[in-house]
Amino acid sequence: MGAYEDIKTRVENDGVEYIYAMFVEMHGRACAKLVPVEALEGLMANGAGFAGFASGPMGQDPSSPDMICIPDPSTYTQLPWQPNVAAMQCDPTVEGVRWPYAPRIILRNALDKLAERDLVMKTGVEAEYSLVVKNNDGSIAVADERDVDVLPCYDAKGLTRMLPHLTDVSKNLNAMGWGNYANDHEDANGQFEQNWQYADAMTTADRLILFRLMIHTMAQRDGRYATFMPKPFANKAGNGLHAHISLWSTADEPLFIGGDEPDPKGLGLSEMAYHFAGGLIAHATSLVAVACPIVNSYKRMGVGAPTSGATWAPAYAAFGGNNRTQMIRVPEPDRLEVRLGDGAANPYLMFAAMLACGMDGIDNQTDPGEVNTANLFTLPAAEVAARGIVTLPPTLMHAADNLVTNDVIAAGLGDTATGPYSHYFAETKRAEFLAHHHEVTAGEIDQYLTLF
Ligand SMILES: [Mg+2]
User: Fold this and answer.
1) Å from CA of 305 to ligand 1 middle
2) Is the CB of residue 230 less than 8 Å from the CB of residue 312?
3) How far is the centre of ligand 1, averaged over its atoms, from the C-alpha of 322 (Å)?
């Protein structure tokens, strides 16, 4: 059966009336056209056309030819929260060629290259988000006005007050077959995390985009806003996107679990996993531009603790065992938990960049360094530096400046007609930084108005 016939059958069986033909731009914003099933045959044969420039940074200007998004039938998903609609992620093309500025194409190309080495990347993500309301003056407040504890993490009362939202999300995750296994109140007031099973990297990236869309939709239903913004409140922990990463053979054998080889670091990982971690550490100061890609990202990081006592975000490029103050944690000897990314990360770009760094570590047998057991949130900076641990950049501008010097990530994200995509990304981010830098903030007025 061809792709069209297959999807037509599923649409009929599911009672679906409309399809979201979806793609994301550089920021990972979910973009879609709503296509009635009467037009399914044309969608499957010819794709959906978009003016790429209008969607965001996609390497197009208003004079550019159409971006034609070809549905990937393997991603067909009926949306349980609006069951007359199904979503399909699409691969953007321009004039018949995979568009090298499209994040899903960038990850697809990276995974194709990995497959040539008989390897598969699997990932899981911990998508943290906050539920807020807007005040009349435009500022935001935690949606649940009773959620004011200094240490709200895992609070059963806070969980209970949000039960209708959380259980609906859980049921939706399971209806889509993603395997929801935990839901919790996180470290900040109004902050939650809902977990589903890991999968191949493309599937996880596609699911994260749909997850964010679902959370926004359901928050709006209840009169709230959901935000994945890395630091919505200056005095509360921010929204992370921890990524659990492992490599597997194409025959589905896990390759990060240690075997008979010597394991001087004692964490039970394979040499391949240690070297992958080494690559992530070696390129961390550039990788962070992709994993923490907005101005606000850099207000979540560092060692300055919010009211709950810890940022839970890495300040340094460091490797440890089961230690949440490290950039890379090893919770169990089968995967790496990379704690660098935040809620603004585009998962396609982040996975492609992390893969490039990790594979470079494998190819160069890079050592991730000693296993850190210290609490890096409290260890004095001089002591951290004395251990040879590198500090992550303080702003998006510093990170973007690092990224343009990094040839490994440039190769991993691929080339466009005008140069590496990573340079285009860095230029976009520099402009984003400067646009915010041009603002005069309330804090500047407070500090400087009458100081001189
Ligand atoms: Mg968490």
Assistant:
1) 16
2) no
3) 14
